[in-house]
Write a structure and sequence with these properties.
Chain A is of the alpha+beta class and 365 residues long. Chain A is built from nine helices and 18 strands. Chain A has a single domain, classed as Chorismate synthase AroC (Chorismate synthase, AroC fold). Chain A has a five-stranded antiparallel sheet with strand order 1-2-3-7-4, covered by helices on one side. A five-stranded antiparallel sheet of chain A has the order 9-8-10-16-11.
Chain lengths: 365, 365, 365, 365
């Protein structure tokens, strides 16, 4: 469905980096949920550039809710959130030379030159502000069901954070951190590495890790809407994500079945697994353990170094030096975006399984 | 859409491992395409167990086409393919003890005990026979547009094949190989490793790599139907796949932008990239270079070793020894399944972009 | 979605009139529902030609369930039902001359000559056998929630049955009638009229009326999935239906608001309406009163009289006399088809509103 | 998909009558189409109240395009159009007594009291302003392919306009008329009838007729996306429409096959039909003749007469006198809404059949 994601709870995105606004429409959310504008603002501030680690484009993200909220609660009808673009410098952009690793050339192939190319247009990370605002509404809805989501930087250009240990506590820990790592020492070394990339007119990539706790067992479909399928459908639309793995993921390649199988045990009357190599999902369906996944994030494509490329309008080779304001790493700012997309995917699965009132009436198996 | 995948060209799967049949319905395919029953049979034989490397359940896969094909050509109406199950030993299965890493427990949570549990039921790898039959129709349709797909075992329990070098030639190479590796020496070592796993009553995992050549630029959507999104939606519904990465994928975490950006160049009047770290996709849209991705495949969950688990009907701990016939590794047999799912996803994207007649009328930008 | 209808509960149709079989896949139905093969047979017999009022093509409709049913219950996974075609006389059909009011010419425009033209191919009323079999599974599922559906012939070529009076009782009455009318005298006159059309080598049209009782209030969406929208989406895919109206329908054109508004009243603690001009739907959402709608059914297109037409292969005018076996009226046989499509649409709406377990867990507002 | 309509070209609606704004997101439209803000304004003015025949609520409909348009052309990315609500008098509305024939009670059943009830909220005809703005973009896109749409009032409370004769010319005629009738004398009598209803504190219903010319043959699907299915799915979401018929529609009930079959003839090398009882659609697929359909529009539910109803909050009978500003008939203002919904449905069918570039590259069979 192109710019609409989800089947039961859907999110439709719109906007360009240098157009009037970016925004989203949420449809299918239960009526009666509290909409906390402060929380939405806090989520937006987690994504906002905040230091030399990030781009110098500063957007206040003054969002407006145009519909679907009445007297502070969701009505059950579509919620349209709009975030005006206020700080644009469109003069920074020229059309023709393709920025390597960006969508300039592919957008030209798809939109035949009519695309709004300024600042990456509809491909810009700016659009993710709308996604994060959506998360600002959906994350509390999930929390109402006891479901919590947290994402940290597991690796930045070779520097590693510790992986999730006790997901419940670790997610709580992350809520208070502006630089989302579990081990703050690693975080400082990552920050230094990002600053160094900036001073080298370069950029760096990394890996994030996400945990979801409190998800009930029995959600997802073997074919074709496995939990992994629905989550990755959303995650791979975030620019810069080039890999997703669940639980042990690529590490399974070196394991034998006897090592990678998660033994089941009864614990306080509940079925649990002793290990969680499968990341909380068996056969595409949640098993009640924390959902765990990692995303590979490529280095920011925009770097100030001269690069070899083509001018696709002229059909000839050229050299490009990118001006404009860019992030030396998006690994920090992508974390709340991943949380939001995860929230959308899970809300959609829950609404499909338990009906549209699930967020107020709760889950009953 | 649960068991239906795709929007413009859709595939609906049905069947259980020990029920009367498995099958699929393909809808949205152009009329006038040749349906080559021999090619479908060859594809099915690539997936079929063939040696001690695989399960001993032998299915002849005698498929029937019930609709949508007339005088050897597609009619443009839905094609229903049915593959009867002929060699079932349902007595091998008991209900209650959850096989670790399998969907027994999650199926119970979802289907409340009404699931056909024999041989994994609807979660069984047996269902992939229907997917491969679908590929037997779609792969020639893509080949008619100059698009070719090939998958090899990049790694099996630590033993590595060489990665794709010249994708066009490598795909041709793979067409002739029953054990899909590029370097046959590596293949022999992998086979030995799988046999060893069998003799240890254990199983092993691995990594596959897939290349797609001949795909035109300009296909895919930035939000939310990026090429990566659509492909992974399909791929993650294949049981056993726990990670997917495109191009450098998780390797991007250690790269800087200046290393990971693919420089564009003009070559014989066409735009190409010098490297292909992005796996042929920029901003979710094809750039005309080969699409490259890797899938992490977990070790077969069914192993003959005693395993700790729970009996979910009784709600108590138990020990389980799995009987029945199983693969010590599915990494070989999963390759044609990945080819088929890739074909479905690409056919869907092409039909959406260029209309339902694209496979007979071709692509015009 | 072309041959797939529904979003939460979906039905995918396949098959051609003279191909090996017709069939359907049902997905999204709750696990644990009893599947009553006798009831499916009874439904199929309601649609089967039974006398001179109908075509002389006799099909035994020996259906097979290939998947999704285990130990007599639905498993929750896709149910594939196949009905082989056994009595075909393909020699009756020639290709080129377009049968007026049929899809021969439009199929040629769409499928470029690759369509299976024998007996109308995928456009044939034969495909509705699969729909009726689907109804044979879904109607009892609805009945488990207290929802009943009945359709009668309201008018046949000017001869009128009485409209629904007490829908609950009238639906019960219809269950026992092979010729579905409420007033048996009218039925006899209709039958005479149909026989006269046959003897005139002509055909006649009519109007059906459908009632649904026991539907809870609060189901449907104002935009764009109103109950009317979802029902008519399904109904208008039945060949021969050219109009649908709810409640007073076209009669509203002559009413004033004070006549057409349904006053609300409390009755035994429930909200009811005094009249039911709106057919149980306000603002696209059920109000708890019976859903009432009428379908206009055109005369069978196949008549034995010589007709002016074109041979679209030759591009020239021609005269056509249709051979083959045809119904002088489909108004009787269409009734169970309408019941089935109505069941699909309502099941889909209920599954979307209350979740996939609704048919076993019931509705709770 | 609830508030999203279409599969290839989609429209998502949002907004409440007395909220900040109503609006829509269009996705899947070809890049490079001219967006004519004056034409959008003209379409909006066709829907706007203009005299005593309509409500006295006056909205300037100052729309803003937030995305998807760049340098006066569509970019190919989602177009978000927002129309602020400027003239609201929320004090006119009380909550509890259900306005008969309105959605107050059903909204309460669905949204549990959280719905924005002011002015009908999301159910209000106000939302159709957004639909008409969408039509302001899509109608020229269709006109670029030679496809024209026109709707007139065929009947208003028993007073009849002449039906479409020469659809091409009649559509051109309607473009210049503020009161959309073909025969202006009938129009004057209809206006008098509406004024009389107003003076009687009552309202009146009617029937519209729509023609589409220039549509190529071969578009639509037999199951389940017949042209009739897709059109009515959209049409029945317009509040007040309670019946839709194609061509002869309910008149088929009195015809024999030899009367209702449309004979085919060759005319200037093209296949045409001599009559058009089927309204341009055979077997769910366009045959190249004008598409013709009629919609039954119920009398405006809001009337100033005292009405019997219930207070659903208190669960008791009550009498209601509706205050606020209302239309004595919506039959005039609904015409451009029907044009817009028709445009959406046809654009969706065309984009599915011929691909997303169809509006710039044209149709090729």
């Amino acid at each position: 469905m192109k710019n609409t994601f989800g089947q039961n709870l859907t999110v439709t995105l719109f906007g360009e980096s240098h157009g009037p606004a970016v925004g989203a429409v949420i449809d299918g959310l239960s009526p009666g949920l509290t909409v906390d504008q402060d929380f939405i603002n806090r989520q937006l501030s987690r994504r906002r550039p905040s230091s030399l680690l990030d781009t110098t484009r500063q957007e206040p993200d003054r969002f407006q809710i145009l519909s679907g909220v009445f007297n502070g609660h969701t009505t059950g009808t579509p919620i349209c959130i709009v975030i005006p673009n206020e700080n644009t410098r469109s003069g920074d952009y020229v059309y023709g030379p393709a920025r390597p690793s960006h969508a300039d050339y592919t957008a030209f192939c798809k939109y035949h030159g009519y695309e709004d190319y300024r600042g990456g247009g509809h491909f810009s990370g700016r659009i993710t502000a709308a996604l994060v605002a959506v998360g600002g509404i959906l994350l509390p809805a999930l929390e109402g069901l006891g479901i919590r989501i947290g994402t940290h930087i597991l690796q930045c250009h070779g520097i590693c954070d510790r992986p999730f240990g006790q997901p419940e506590q670790d997610i709580a820990l992350l809520a208070g951190r502006s630089f989302p790592v579990l081990d703050e020492d690693s975080g400082e070394r990552m920050a230094a590495c990002i600053l160094e990339a900036r001073s080298n007119t370069d950029s760096v990539g990394g890996i994030t890790q996400t945990a979801v706790t409190g998800m009930c067992a029995g959600v997802g479909e073997p074919w074709f809407d496995s939990v992994e399928s629905v989550l990755t459908h959303g995650l791979f639309s975030i620019g810069g994500i080039k890999g997703v793995e669940f639980g042990e993921g690529f590490g399974f390649a070196g394991l034998s079945g006897s090592e990678g199988n998660d033994a089941f045990r009864m614990e306080e009357g509940r079925v649990v697994t002793v290990t969680n190599c499968n990341g909380g999902i068996n056969g595409g369906i949640t098993n009640g353990m924390p959902i765990l996944f990692q995303c590979a994030v490529k280095p920011t494509a925009s770097i100030a170094k001269p690069q070899q490329t083509v001018d696709f309008l002229k059909g000839e080779d050229t050299e490009l030096v990118i001006h404009g304001r860019h992030d030396p790493a998006i690994i920090r700012r992508i974390c709340p975006v991943i949380d939001s997309v995860t929230a959308i995917a899970l809300c959609d699965l829950l609404a499909g399984r338990f009906g549209t009132d699930v967020f107020v009436k709760g889950v009953s198996l």
